[in-house]
Amino acid sequence: MFLLRLLILLALVLALFWLVKRLFSGDPDPEQLESSKSENMRQCRYCGVHVPESSVISVNDEPYCCQEHADLDQH
Fold first, then answer.
1. The three-state (H, E, C) secondary structure of the chain, written as one string
2. 44: Cβ–Cβ under 8 A, 6 or more apart, which residues?
3. pLDDT of the chain, 75 residues: tens digit per residue
4. Best CA proximity match to 42, nearest among 57, 60, 22, 25
5. Cα distance between residue 74 and residue 41, in whole Å
6. Cα–Cα distance, 72 to 35 (Å, whole number)
7. β-strand 57-59 against 41-43: which pairing, if any?
8. Cα–Cα distance between 63 and 47 in angstroms, integer?
9. Which pLDDT score, from 0 to 100, does residue 72 have?
10. pTM, 2 dp
11. What was the pLDDT predicted at 25?
12. Distance CA 62, CA 73 (A)
């Protein structure tokens, strides 16, 4: 009975050690790596704000941060 309790306690300590080490190791999770991939930034021709390339509204090959700025720059 004592040996079983000792094994359970040892398993709990090892699991706690692994968890603390993982939290403070600085190694990002694979999910964090996917979400932190860098993306090229483009500058809005109208206001100068930088936006990710995937969010750019392109009119006549000019980048805009939103449709409103694309419309305002065309007038």
1. CHHHHHHHHHHHHHHHHHHHHHHHCCCCCHHHHHHCCCCCEEECCCCCCEEEHHHCEEECCEEECCHHHHHHHHC
2. 50, 51, 63, 64, 65, 66, 69
3. 889 999 999 999 999 999 998 888 776 666 666 665 688 999 999 999 999 999 999 999 999 999 999 999 886
4. 57
5. 22
6. 33
7. unpaired
8. 11
9. 93
10. 0.51
11. 79
12. 10
**Per-residue pLDDT at 34:** 61
Distance CA 75, CA 70 (A): 9
Structural domains of the chain sorted by starting position, each given as residue range(s) with its CATH number in brackets? 39-75 (3.30.60)
For residue 33, the model assigns a pLDDT of 61
**Looking at this protein, which amino acid is placed at residue 24?**
F
What CA–CA distance (Å, rounded) separates 52 from 40? 6
The one-letter amino acid at 38: S
